[in-house]
Each structure stands twice: as structure tokens, then as C-alpha cells.
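HOLO CASE FILE
Compound: GLP
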Amino acid sequence: MNVYILSSAEQVAKNCAMLISSQLISKPDSVFGLATGSSPVRCYEYLAQWYKEGLLDFSRATSFNLDEYIGLDAQHEQSYRYFMQEKLFKFINLKQSFLPNGVAENLEEECKRYDDLLASYGGADLQLLGIGRNAHIAFNEPSDVFSAGTRVVDLTQSTINANKRFFESADMVPKKAITMGIGTIMSAKKIVLIATGLDKAEAIKKTIDGDIDPKFPSSILKLHKDTTLLIDREAATLL
Ligand code: GLP
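Model generated. C-alpha cells follow.
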């Protein structure tokens, strides 16, 4: 695991956008695994800016997002589809973008369809990840086992609490989501995880030091052969 410590959140965002750009330049038809949450927002702004300046061309690139809330359709302002549209997709010329359908009639079938679709594109060339305060990645919460493929999950109270800032109240946060599994994430050729701020320091310590333990889902990344952690000094405090 390559750990790159930067002096500010701004530098983390810019470096992350540079890694995504470099992937796009060296393979214009790249498949990107994308993430939501506040962590990637500034990186997406850089990508939008560099696209506008004519530095990047996404016209042959495809994206697959990690997860989606169950019960929120694409028009819902808190859905991850809407988030991606507002933060990135509407500003760039991606060939196509996929997210799990959180209002699919048959959610089990939707999970399988999503994994099959990603596999038919050869998997992700670069998977971008944020990290939860409890070391969850995508919506893979602490558990007794590492999950395999895309599946339906219950969100933990701590994740609901962390994400309620995007909703009017904690009651409005969906209790379930569709998420890529740990196996799906680990099948990406390259992984870039970004984390900033003191409240991610514990999760980053668990990711880098200590055992590979499904109670700290991100700890599995130690087994991946091409993972880069871009973190700021605050997130690196406990290392
Ligand atoms: C959510 C998302 C994760 C994200 C996490 C951290 O739970 N499903 O993909 O990494 O939030 O979010 P933030 O970047 O806002 O701290």
C-alpha cells in the first residue's frame, strides 16, 4: 500500500484529480469506479475545471458508482445519482455512467445485474474510495466476514448519523443501500482512497496498521497490489 501524506485537504483533492487524469490520459476508455460523500467533491471540481480548460476528454470513459440508497430515485436530491449529476456528470463529457438502481423492483436481481455489467466492461481500471469513520468502504459496514459481490445492506446507526447532515433529519436517511461488495472493490486494477481530517484518523490507522479484520472493512486494502492512500496530515495523526 502506498501512503502519500499531504499537508492539506486541498492538496489531497488535487493529487486525486491528478491520478484520475493520468489514468484517463494513458487509457481514454478507462472504467472509473466513483464514490460519493464529501471527500471526493473537491477532486470532482478539479476534473470539471480541467475538462473545461480542454485538458481532459472523458468521451470514451465509463463510470460505475459504488453504492446507492434504497428507496431514493434518480430525481431525489439525496440520491447518489443526483449527487453525481450535480457534482460531476453535468460538467464533463463522460461516455456513460452507471449506479445501482435503488428503486429496482427486484433488488437481488439488480445487484447481480450491476456486478455482471461491471464485469462485462472488464471491471474498474481505477476505483476511487472515501472512508467512513468506522472504516467502512462504500456501504460495507463492519462485519464478521468480508463481503463478495454487490448486495443489499442495512446501514449502521453511526453511518446514518454521519450522513444525516445531507438530510432534513436522521429519520429521513434511508436505512438500507445497495453497495458494491468488498470483492467487487478489490477486483479493481487500481484503488485510490482519500481521507482528510481528524475524524478519519482512527479509520486510517486501522487501514494501515494492524490486522486484516472485517470489523475494519478498509483493512482488506492491504492485500490489494495497487492501492494508494492520499491523506492529509490530520488523517495521518495516529500513524
Ligand atoms: C458514505 C459513502 C462512502 C463514503 C463515506 C464517507 O457512507 N457510502 O462511500 O466514503 O460516506 O463520507 P465522507 O466523505 O462524507 O466523510
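CASE NOTES: DSSP finds seven helices and ten strands in the chain. The longest strand covers residues 190-195.
CLOSED: yes
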